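Sequence only, no structure available. Ideas?
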Amino acid sequence: MTLRRLFWIGAAGLLGLAALISIVALIRGEFTETDGRILGTLGVTFLAGSAALAGIALVERRDLVPLGWAVVLVAVVTFGLLSWQVWTEFDQESWSLDAATAAVASLMLATARLMLRDRRFEWLFWTSAALTVSAAAMFDWAIHADPDGDNWAKLLGTLAILTILAWFLVPVLGRASGTSAPERIVGRGPGRVEVELAEGETLVVRAG
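Reply:
I predicted one. Tokens follow.
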């Protein structure tokens, strides 16, 4: 909870700073390159921070821990590479696109797993993961190969739509199933009981 709270406080701070820079540019009457670079850095920080937090959440839940650490690593590399490119006018544009694609794909993988509430839809998560990795790989291929024709663009667009659909269905079907979390009894009164709550658990005290 502390990490999440710090993240949202940081996100609010980034948005406030971005708004302040925009207001100053509006009052000044011009939007300079430095303003754009600062806003770009803030955007990179938000993207990388979101991915890193999602990866850390997986590690803390002990759920697909290797994926969690991989997402954290991608977030750190993405932050360094994209921040450097923002301030060097994207002299390595293909690298920047590769890093941004990897960060977005990692964020989608981690958040899809975190949103999986009903284990009956485990297959849907893996379907979403396969589509996400395939779409990211195809997008990277298109960046470097620069293929001719429109067929590849149509295929990539179709794959992207299916990827987003599967990502949204993971939490939607889980909630629509109406499956309630199982209860666990940790003790009975009178007396004192120490309880350590797992991720997503809520402590309910009942009398009688």
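The chain has two domains: 1-114, 120-176.
Hope that gets you unstuck.
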